[in-house]
Amino acid sequence: MHVNGKVALVTGGAQGIGRAFVQALLGKGAKVALLDRNPEAGQQSKAALDEQFEAQRTVFIQCDVTDTEQLKGAFKKVIEHFGRLDIVVNNAGVNNEKDWESTIQINLTSVIRGTYLGLEYMRKGNGGDGGVIINISSLAGENIFYIDTFYSLVSI
Description:
The protein is α/β, with parallel strands linked by helices. It has helices at 16-27, 39-52, 68-82, 100-122, 149-154; strands at 7-11, 31-36, 58-62, 87-90, 132-135. The protein is globular, with a radius of gyration of 15 Å. The mean pLDDT is 90.
């Protein structure tokens, strides 16, 4: 898929794999919205990317993907800012056995919600041009790790 001129939304986009996705998409000519719940990491990532790429090609939106209204609002802001949405990367994820409910909300529920929002905004019958949704998971879902059983189950 050619991404030059396309608009992408990346959850967990300020750090790690999400940041690598953002950088790769920008390197291929896309415009990218970085969503992250960490405002400091998001602003630092945006500033660093602005030095390497044109500042108008990125926007940072602070967003806790477990908050339905924040996630819906972030999708709306992307459309308002860039005028379209072509690529959704559901990347936000955690590994926290002690707070398993939060792990489910981030690693599973928000991915499902992000997928449905992406379908809604990119659907041709709804004014979109179609698009691509990429859901990131973990290799832990392929093998059950008895040290971290719950995380392995959520990553399936």
